[in-house]
Design a protein that fits this description.
Length: 434
């Protein structure tokens, strides 16, 4: 029937037919049947304000995106072995948003593929095997990326840190060691990149790459201290590493002030990886690098990606960039982000267990603790707040090493009315959840 199967039936069959490792949100899973702008609509017709999905940055089922996608799909979809206008126009427009030295693009289908390709380029260019990643980082689901994702290999089911991975400290200002002077936090965290390189050296490996998100997200919505990224990049370069900025989650203007979050730290990487919001939900991703690194990779072996860079994906990608610019959505993210951070910070006056409120643009986090002095993570409380918000009509998530950070990444098309509703729901949830 048109209504499809009931939610509990889907859940039952899902457990039988799909890999069990898939997680599902909420105690009572939701069956979402439709998306419209910043809203997701469930099987009972109830609309929820989606404050979690950064992929649909221009709104769910954005009609302009759907139109351009459908039109190109009706005309042609094929691979990169033929000339096509779309891929060239897209490569030009995308690289124009990046620092001058980043001129050569590779198109793939997921953030994981983009990071894997970046690693291949870095290892080829340096002829080294090691990678330095930040503690609690997540860079993707491929074998090569689980190996550089402490968020995975340190947790249940993981095999621990491989000898080819060095772990630099997560530059978390809120949880910086108590005896560090405030003015030195950025430099001390950056110094741990060198410690990680030493860790690699002890295992007999040189660093091919330093990879970092320019606003670590899975690690708990960590806004990097000013000065950190520049110093960390310099330390890694000194040891011969190529710098990979993983902008898969934070890229495309989410920080508001800039298109790319590394730009807000006045730091320039050698490779940038992008995904998630790049196609507003259409599965596509990209890697952009320098002429020199790209040329070194051009070693005789073909690079072929069946779906990467196809005319449909490139048409969608072009439209996404066009809308971001036309509708001045970065400015919107800056304005709403600042106001939301101010309003969420006010909640701290009334609620002791809010330890920290942080963010950049529309990448926001509220860290919950049992006690502001000890900062013991309030994991269960965070989960209950998120459940309550769902009951009240707002979708959020939790993340971080202890799952105690409420994570918010609303669409770039968020409005004042949406922000008011989010605040109203958060206020009620904090007032009502014990
Ligand atoms: N890098 C980061 C920072 C991510 O957040 C993700 C996805 N959560 C990935 C890479 C992997 O992207 P995908 O799931 O599209 O492979």
């Amino acid at each position: 029937t048109k209504a499809g199967r009931a939610a509990d039936d889907l859940l039952k069959v899902r457990k039988e037919k799909l890999v069990r490792n898939l997680s599902i949100s909420y105690k009572t899973p939701m069956k979402i049947v439709r998306g419209e702008g910043v809203h997701l609509i469930d099987d009972r017709g109830r609309a929820y304000l989606d404050c979690y999905n950064n992929v649909a940055q221009l709104g769910h089922a954005n009609p302009e995106i759907v139109e351009v996608l459908a039109r190109q799909a009706a005309l042609l979809n094929t691979n990169t072995r033929y000339l096509h206008d779309n891929i060239i126009a897209y490569a030009e427009k995308l690289t124009a948003t990046l620092p001058k030295n980043l001129t050569v693009a590779g198109f793939v289908c997921s953030g994981s593929e983009a990071n894997d390709l970046a690693l291949r380029l870095a290892r080829n260019y340096t002829q080294a095997q090691g990678t330095v990643a930040l503690d609690w980082a997540y860079h993707g689901h491929l074998s090569s990326l689980i190996e550089i994702s402490p968020y995975k290999y340190k947790r249940k089911g993981g095999k621990g840190r491989p000898a080819t991975t060095g772990e630099a400290m997560l530059p978390d200002a809120y949880r910086a060691p108590a005896d560090w002077p405030k003015a030195e936090i950025a430099a001390r965290y950056a110094a741990s990149v060198t410690t990680a390189i030493d860790q690699l050296a002890q295992a007999g490996h040189k660093p091919a790459a330093f990879i970092a998100e320019s606003l670590p997200s899975s690690a708990g919505q960590i806004v990097l201290p000013q000065g950190y990224l520049k110093a960390a990049y310099a330390a890694a370069r000194k040891a011969g590493a190529v710098i990979i900025a993983d902008e898969v989650q934070i890229g495309f203007g989410r920080v508001g002030s800039h298109m790319w979050a590394f730009d807000s730290h006045d730091a320039v990487p050698d490779i940038v990886t992008m995904g998630k919001p790049i196609g507003n939900g259409h599965p596509m991703a990209a890697m952009v690098t320098t002429r020199e690194i790209a040329d070194a990779f051009f070693n005789g072996m073909e690079y072929f990606n069946t779906f990467g860079g196809n005319p449909v994906s490139c048409a969608v990608g072009l439209k996404v960039l066009e809308i971001l610019e036309r509708d001045r959505l970065l400015a919107n993210a800056t304005r709403l982000g600042q106001s939301l951070i101010a309003r969420m910070s006010k909640l701290m006056d009334r609620h002791d267990r809010i330890g920290d409120v942080r963010g950049q643009g529309l990448m926001l986090g509220i860290e919950l603790v049992e006690d502001r002095m000890t900062k013991v993570p309030a994991t269960d409380y965070a989960g209950r707040i998120v459940e309550k918000c769902r009951q009240l009509g707002v979708l959020l998530g939790t993340d971080g090493p202890h799952d105690n950070v409420i994570k918010m990444r609303p669409g770039m098309i968020f409005t004042d009315t949406n922000a008011d509703f989010l605040m109203q729901v958060l206020e009620t949830a904090f007032a009502e959840v014990a």
